[in-house]
Please model this.
Amino acid sequence: MRTIRRAILAVLLFAMLLLVFFAIYAMVRNRPQDLPWTRLDLGQPIGAFTGRKLAGLTDNFAECRALLQAAGVRYTILPTVKSAGKCGYADGLRFVPGGAQRVEFTPARLGVSCPVAAALSMWEWNVLQPAAQKHFGARVERVEHLGSYSCRRLYGRSAGDWSEHATADAIDVAGFRLSDGTHVSVLGDWQGGGEKAAFLRDVRTGGCSLFSTVLSPDYNAAHRDHLHLDQAERGEMGWRACR
Model:
């Protein structure tokens, strides 16, 4: 009798393992972005591990460039910048019009680290454009920003931790211009109760699956006029944050 029970348990255990195997196989085939060991694909929808994989590109410029190329994003590589303290970057690039990354950034000469560029591309495809269609029935044509690279410490202090802007691993987004002429400003529209405010919150929250840190006017007064998006491995504040 004991032998029969053991045999039954063994069969049940084997069946459970088989089910787990097929579940993992189905996920690898249909949702590879939800698994930690699969290669990142910028053209895939956002998955459970997409944000972590994007942050992991910080130390792999070659892989980051290859992923952008595979996704059809056109760019030009920027010269290495070396400065005092922890400032500078060796993985900077600038979007070139005509690729899969369709929005324009104004001012136009925006240089960011490659992981930020990869996250911005996915942000456009998976977050910005769907949110614009949802709230306005239009598409985002321009993203207005306050810059990326800035050799400074957090909040411009004379001491303390360095900002992610010091390595071009962050961008501050101030507003959006849509194809129907609608203009959305973080400073002017965040506190409203209409579609513009809802749109801003959607693009803020949607960015949290792609960037290490996302800070908005809900965080503090220093961010009242922009969305801070950074793609450092641990985020600007030393931890992943979305607020």
